[in-house]
Design goal:
The complex is a heterodimer. By secondary structure, chain A is mainly β. In chain A, a hairpin with a 6-residue loop joins strand 6 and strand 7. Chain A starts with a strand and ends with a strand. Chain B is about 40% helix and about 10% strand. An 8-stranded parallel sheet of chain B has the order 2-3-4-5-6-7-8-9. In chain B, helix 5 packs parallel to helix 6. The chains are: A mainly beta, B alpha/beta. The interface between A and B is medium-sized, with 30 and 23 residues. Strand 2 of chain A pairs antiparallel with strand 1 of chain B.
């Protein structure tokens, strides 16, 4: 695992998502209401591209006719067969121990720290003043 | 450089994949007006605008159940230039035909005039859809082959359409849907089988359709998931009807392909048929074991592949059906798509893989 600077924060506003290739691995990065998440872009079921999935919430029913909707935009539905994953853990809702995709740490770092740290950012220049999205993958 | 932001297309390119035949691809018109009207008489264009396209399923529009995904499609299959999934040949090449190395793709148009209540309109729309397949798809993309879409509730019109297309090698099969007004083995449909046999093309029966009856034998189910598993039940009824009504005796060169109904149900159905045949063959007069007709005349597409926890059980099932009888299919662009690289996680021989993914299709469609 090493830290990769993948984008300037100003280019990655809330509601946006990007597919990155990091050390040969396809990784989907999401900005959900200002919070960042990164998942391996391969559905563990049949390989669907998760970055093309629909972000929805969690629907639970304690009994027939009563529904509770929570965690809006934190559940990612695979665009193919509709397997649903928790963006915080990469685990599927239905079979969390068997069907799960890799979740990576993502952080926002300011340029000042990056210039000094052991980071990799070769596709664009890092300036001291700005903030950047850093994936630990 | 170890961080790249790929352009969207890069996401489609994976490792080199083996050549495949995809025996179930669904093309859609960008719009009826734009692409199908040129082949539809003015009278029927006016009919669409005045009365709509009414299938045989009571007072409702569209399918009986909401689909698992919008338009029953992969959410990543909407063409960037707009339109519904399956309506853009360029995007289909980019997303599916090229990266999955599809050398042969069989087009199965749905919402195509079949199962409509107005029989004359059904015939006119099926015919227009057949012309449209040539104009928009097969003439532009030699990897794709067309289906002769017929208004199967009207056998006379269906035979006329088969004969019209019989000499055009672009058309490789006759397409029926599994949910018809009567079980498909019954005699009102026999002229279709006779014409298909004469034309030398197989008859494909794709799951779904508009018979006006529930998908199950036990009434209208509540949920889409019940319709999804009901396709297997419905296709068992179709096959049982075809075997017991004797169409394979009457048309000894007829080949039938069951599309999109899975396949793991076939061995137990054949066991039951064989057992009862031994006790009751005088009821139908059928001379050979039902399983023998099935082995000689029936192929099945693989999608949606059953996914047992113990994968070996799938291999056992295929062993009974025959590695030469299954035809790989993806169902692109629908949401229950099977990825050729992931859908059959079994240790099988190269010959088995080649047959199932390619050679069986070449053989049943008499290509190559």
């Amino acid at each position: 695992m090493s830290k990769h600077v993948v984008a300037a924060l100003k280019d990655f506003p809330p509601g946006s998502r990007k597919l990155m290739m990091i050390d040969g691995r396809p990784i989907a990065v999401f900005n959900i209401k200002g919070e960042l998440f990164a998942l391996l872009n391969r559905c563990p079921h049949q390989g669907g591209s998760l970055v093309d999935g629909h972000l929805t919430g969690l629907v639970e029913a304690p009994e027939p006719g009563r529904y509770r909707y929570s965690r809006p935009s934190e559940i990612l539905r695979c665009p193919w067969h509709g397997w649903e994953f928790d963006v915080r853990t990469g685990k599927s809702w239905c079979e969390p121990s068997r069907i799960r995709t890799r979740a990576y740490e993502v952080a926002v770092e300011v340029g000042q720290q990056l210039v000094e740290g052991p980071y990799v950012a070769e596709t664009f220049s890092v300036t001291v003043e700005e903030s950047y999205v850093v994936v630990d993958a | 450089m170890n961080v790249q932001v790929p352009v969207r297309e890069d996401g489609f390119v994976t490792t080199q994949r083996i050549a495949i035949a995809d025996c179930d691809i669904h093309p859609y018109p960008k719009s009826l007006e734009k692409e199908v009207y040129p082949f539809l008489e003015k009278r029927w264009q006016r009919h669409v605008e005045t009365y709509g396209v009414r299938p045989r399923q009571g007072y409702q529009r569209g399918p009986a159940y909401p689909k698992g995904q919008p338009d029953a499609s992969r959410r990543d299959a909407y063409p960037p230039a707009g339109g519904r999934p399956g309506s853009d040949l360029g995007f289909m090449r980019l997303q599916h035909l090229d990266p999955n190395n599809v050398r042969l793709g069989i087009l199965n148009p749905l919402r195509n005039g079949q199962g409509l209540q107005n029989q004359d309109f059904a015939g006119a729309l099926c015919r227009a859809i057949n012309d449209w397949q040539i104009a928009e798809w097969t003439s532009k993309e030699p990897r794709l082959k067309a289906s002769i879409v017929v208004p199967y509730e009207d056998a006379v019109a269906s035979v006329r359409e088969i004969e019209r297309r019989a000499t055009d090698k672009t058309f490789v099969q006759v397409l029926l849907l599994s949910r018809s007004a009567e079980p498909l083995g019954q005699r009102r449909y026999w002229p279709i089988y006779e014409a298909a046999e004469r034309a030398g093309v197989p008859v494909a029966v794709h799951a779904f359709g508009y018979g006006g009856y529930p998908v199950t034998g036990g009434g209208w189910p509540s949920f889409y998931v019940e319709e999804m598993v009901g396709h297997a039940q419905c296709s068992q009824s179709v096959l049982t009807s075809m075997v017991l009504e004797g169409i394979f005796v009457r048309y000894p060169k007829l080949r039938v392909i069951l599309v999109e109904a899975g396949f793991a149900w076939l061995p137990p159905l054949a066991w039951r048929l064989d057992k009862l045949w031994a006790r009751m063959k005088d009821e139908t007069g059928l001379e050979r074991l039902p399983s023998e007709y099935i082995r000689d005349h029936v192929w099945l597409t693989t999608q949606p592949m059953e996914e047992p926890d113990t994968r070996r059980h799938l291999a056992d099932t295929i062993e009974w059906i025959g590695w030469d009888r299954l035809l790989f299919a993806t169902d692109y662009p629908h949401w229950d798509f099977d990825d050729p690289a992931r859908a059959l996680p079994l240790p099988i021989s190269d010959a088995q893989r080649h047959n199932l993914f390619f050679a069986n299709a070449q053989a049943v469609y008499s290509l190559g």
